[in-house]
Design a protein that fits this description.
Layout lengths: L1 H4 L5 H9 L7 H6 L3 E4 L2 E4 L12 H13 L6 E10 L9 E10 L3 E10 L2 E12 L23 H9 L6 H12 L4 E5 L2 H4 L8 E8 L8 H12 L14 E15 L9 E11 L2 E10 L4 E15 L7
Helix pairs in contact: 4-8, 5-6
The chain binds propionyl Coenzyme A.
Protein name: Acyl-coenzyme A thioesterase 8
Organism: Cyprinodon variegatus (Sheepshead minnow)
Enzyme class: hydrolase
């Protein structure tokens, strides 16, 4: 894997990305992760998609924080891990400032601390670490789960369309689903087992889905792919904790912290398998973990997240 990582960004794919028409470029690259520099180590990020909770999407804040951190390290350094706490809800009405502290530049490892700030207060604190490429004879990984290929599965949007055609759906359920369809999330997702994914029946706290950034990114910039993967990794992770509890629905959920480790090169605009599970829940909290697999079976990244989850019983006649 390390040898593979040593393939540096390929100039020709960089230039083909630059020539790609704007409407085909991923909005994650052109907008969400395209921070404005205000001063040395100070950046401003804006929002693209805001969840129904009207608090900023955690993945966006992590992705932007990693972009800010990556801007202060050399091209020979690769992101290998990040550790974040979400300390306040993000306000979708104002931009987020990212202040980078150059904590240490070592010979092999370089650490950055990033504070995401709104209204003068931190909403996220993040440490990110980068490493120069160092080949090693120690190499192992778990095998990738065997699942259907993305071409054989339906997208979330196609599944919602199917569900909308069910005759016994309540008007409010229809409205909710149509709202979901109208939301422009910059990620494409294909659940491996849709019934499980949507909690139609209680099941083990484990779910798998294929995901990729919408639009073209290109293979050039590995740091950018890590930032996109950080964005995507927060999208369906915490919901895994709720899978065994179909009699309850979420009243308040929010991620508390998020840690991520990058193992290999990958393209976040190509299908990756997200394998999420939750080993524990208790005390109004739940732990969720996920592994991101490249299609060819290489383990690309792992992440862990703890969240607060407060639930209420589902109404007897609910169709969702
Ligand atoms: C996809 C997942 C995501 O992206 S989530 C987005 C990223 N994460 C975040 O935005 C989290 C940011 N952090 C925070 O908002 C805060 O640090 C949190 C986690 C809320 C902790 O702050 P803290 O002041 O301790 O809040 P809190 O837990 O006391 O209250 C939160 C809401 O829950 C309620 N609550 C509280 N205790 C109880 C209880 N025993 N039973 C029932 N409800 C309870 C509080 O009233 C509060 O609700 P509300 O916000 O007032 O509606």
């Amino acid at each position: 894997l390390k040898e593979e990582q040593s393939k540096n960004p390929d100039e020709s794919s960089e230039s083909s990305a630059a020539q790609c028409p704007q409407d085909l470029r991923s909005v994650l690259v052109t907008s969400v992760l395209n921070l404005e520099q205000l001063d040395i180590d100070l950046y401003r990020g804006t929002h693209h998609w805001v969840p129904r909770t009207q608090r900023l999407f955690g993945g966006q804040i992590i992705g932007q924080a990693l972009v800010a951190a990556a801007k202060s390290v050399g091209d020979n350094l690769y992101a290998h891990s990040l550790h974040c706490y979400f300390v306040r809800a993000g306000d979708p009405k104002v931009p987020v400032l990212y202040q980078v502290d150059r904590t240490r530049d070592g010979r092999s490892f370089t650490v950055r601390s990033v504070k995401a700030i709104q209204h003068g207060q931190p909403i996220l604190i993040c440490q990110a670490s980068f490493q120069v490429l160092q080949p090693s004879p120690l190499q192992h990984q778990f095998p990738m789960p065997v699942v259907p290929q993305p071409e054989d599965l339906l997208t979330v949007e196609e599944l919602i369309q199917r569900y909308l055609s069910k005759p016994d759906l309540t008007e409010s359920a229809k409205q909710g689903l149509n709202k979901l369809l109208a939301t422009e999330v910059p990620i494409e997702m294909k659940p491996v087992s849709p019934a499980h994914f949507y909690r139609f029946a209680p099941g083990e706290p484990r779910r798998l889905f294929w995901a990729r950034a919408r639009g073209y990114i290109g293979e050039g910039d590995m740091k950018l792919h890590c930032c996109v993967a950080a964005y995507v990794s927060d999208f369906a992770l915490l919901g895994t904790v709720l899978l065994p509890y179909s009699k309850y629905k979420a009243r308040f959920t929010a991620s508390l912290d998020h840690a991520m480790w990058f193992h290999s090169t990958f393209r976040s605009d190509e299908w990756m398998l997200y394998e999420c599970d939750s080993p524990w829940a208790g005390s109004s909290r739940g732990l969720a973990q996920c592994r991101l697999w490249r299609r060819d079976g290489v383990l690309a990244a792992s992440c862990s997240q703890e969240g607060v989850l407060r639930v209420k019983p589902v109404a007897e006649n609910s169709k969702l």
